[in-house]
Structures are given as C-alpha cells and as structure tokens.
Specification:
The protein has one helix and eleven strands. By secondary structure, it is mainly beta. Strands 1, 2, 3, 4, 5, 6, 7, 8, 9, 10 and 11 form an eleven-stranded mixed β-sheet that branches.
C-alpha cells in the first residue's frame, strides 16, 4: 500500500512538472514570465542538424535500420493533451563499440527530447540531455526517475492501451523502431500482460 501511494505521488509530481512546463510555455507566449521547470537548459528555438525549426523533431528518414541496436519494452504515460508526456524503453547495443542515442521521432508527437532526472539537495531536477551512451554489448534502461523521452505537442490525446510507433536515431546514422504501449499515468514500470 505504501509503495503504491509513493508511486502514485511520484506520477502526480511528474505530471505537475510537465503541466507547469506547458503552462510556462503558454504564459511566455502571453507575455507573462515563464516557469520552465521540465525544460531546464534546453533551447526550444534551436535550429541546426539536430533540430528542425518546427520544434526539434529528429529526421530519421535517411537513417538505415540497425542490425545491432534494438529498442524494446517501450511504454508511454497517458497524460491529458496538450500536456507533455514521457516515454520509457530499453536500448540494447549488440555492437562491439559504444553508440550514442541522439534523439527520437514519432508522428504522434511534434517534438521529442531526451531528458534525465537527477537528484540534487533532495530535489528532483529534469534537464535535457544529448548523446546518451549505450555501452558496447550492453543496454541502458530509460525509466521513471532516470533517463526518459519527453514527448511534446501530441497530435491527439493518448488512449490507454493504444500503440505509438517511435523511431530512435543513433550517432552511427542508424535507427531502431519500437511500438510503445500507452499506460496509465501512475505506472512506474512496464506491466506484464
């Protein structure tokens, strides 16, 4: 019971951070001071090879499908649109050298950023991160309270139980694709079927 309560409180806290970031973006557009807790250190207006002017989506159309990198156990928290959500997954690297996950893309979201949650002075801090290293012949789990994909500008409200396709881009010029299941907002880990 205590663990369920803690998990629910953590999920609500994550949603509050996401909602405050979304509200901060809307306040900034209205000339009010923005509170961008969930986006500390990230430049949303950045353009360049890793960002499109429309909002940071990564272009995976020219990337070839990897034969050594896979993404599995992908799931997304259901959060009411237009608030941002989070995606979690496991990246396995079967290659003999480290690879770097550089970004993700999905038709279901206008922008996906890689974020990391860290603890500092007893407080959780969420910040954008780039080039997340996946060790050679190893794996890295993107999970609540750690690395995750911040999913912004949803095309429509996510329905629990539905599936979302997502592409992941690596520094090798390769991509991996995963089907992500939408889970309830208070989910803390993938549920077995």
């Amino acid at each position: 019971m205590k663990n369920t309560l803690i998990a629910s409180l953590m999920a609500v806290g994550s949603m509050a951070l996401a909602l405050s970031a979304h509200a901060g973006t809307n306040l900034a557009a209205a000339g009010q001071p923005a509170i961008l807790v969930a986006h500390a250190g990230h430049d949303h207006g950045k353009t360049g090879p890793d960002h499109r002017a429309q909002g940071g989506a990564h272009d995976v159309s020219h990337a070839k499908m990897s034969t050594t990198i896979t993404v599995s156990s992908c799931w997304i928290r259901a959060v009411p649109a237009p608030a941002p959500s989070a995606g979690y997954f496991v990246v396995k690297n079967g290659a003999s050298k480290d690879v770097k996950l550089q970004g993700a893309s999905s038709a279901a979201y206008g922008m996906i950023m890689l974020h990391q949650t860290t603890q500092q002075d007893g407080m959780s801090k969420m910040s954008a991160t780039h080039d997340v290293v996946i060790p050679a012949a190893g794996q890295l789990e993107f999970k609540p309270g750690s690395y995750h994909a911040m999913l912004e500008k949803p095309a429509k409200a996510a329905v629990i139980g539905s599936k979302v396709n997502m592409d992941f881009l690596f520094d090798t010029g390769e991509k991996a694709t995963a089907e992500c299941e939408v889970k309830p907002a208070n989910t803390m880990a993938p549920m077995s079927h």
